[in-house]
Amino acid sequence: MEQRINDGLSPYRVFTRAEWAALREDTPMTLAAEEVTRLRSVHDRLDIAEVEEIYLPLSRLLSLYVATTQRLFRAQQRFLGTEDAKVPYIIGVAGSVAVGKSTTARVLQALLARWENVPRVDLITTDGFLLPNAVLEREDLMERKGFPESYDLPALLRFLTDVKAGRHPVRAPVYSHLTYDVTANEWIEINRPDILIVEGLNVLQTGRMPKDGKAIPFVSDFFDFSVYLDAAEDVLLTWYVDRFLALRGTAFRDPKSYFHRYSRLSDEEATATATSIWTRINLVNLHENIQPTRPRADLILKKGESHEVEEVALRRL
Questions:
Q1: Is the pTM for the entire model greater than 0.85?
Q2: How far is residue 285 CA from its own chain's centroid?
Q3: Torsion angle (degrees, nearest 10) of CA 49, 55, 58, 60
């Protein structure tokens, strides 16, 4: 993705923004401007043009993929002579902190739910599968929050296994960005949707293979399609600092906020604090765990400084 490759040797076919936008064809625009405003996160600059030129073509592509998967499922049913229930089509959304994963996931959910057959589209984030702060503190992992070792991976894998097995309802834990912790005794129920979007930092990561040769699953094994949001590191830092400054005057003001102590910082102090957090934690996680998974994605959305997607890379079939 660092350079545009269309020599036929790359596993990706790369499109300029204009080339990708043309693939929308006659896909109808089903979101109004005010809905797009509600869907975007505090620091994003998503607008109608971005939805029309980037996410509508992606919605069209996904509709084709889902329909093809459903036909394959029915063909397998006939071949096996079974009556297995249809299982959800799972889409993974990965990328760095501050790159806009939450906005992308919500926009995709809204667009996909408005196809003609009105599929049920659910969305979860892997934040709910973070270990509680009490555990992270006991294990001296608070500075590694968001790293692979800070998640309850067995619980996440059980959740995805149950979803793909057609079990219902399946419960996912809830995470509070206000308290910066998993919310005790609160759950999201996933009840056999047509499509499930799973958004998180490390959803495309693999681990070391066991030396004994035993089969071990990875989160991405359960995905039917995956999206990676990409941006230059200096741009990501700018977005992270901008978001921190914006939250300082909004969510951080709440006395219940884990970050309430930052609400009184000056602009200079807040910038220095955000930069330090980014450098110590988020940048390290990006280098060690997130960015190396980029080549595993089916689709890479490359963003520029303006938050707009400038290039799209689609894995060849």
A1: yes
A2: 16
A3: -80
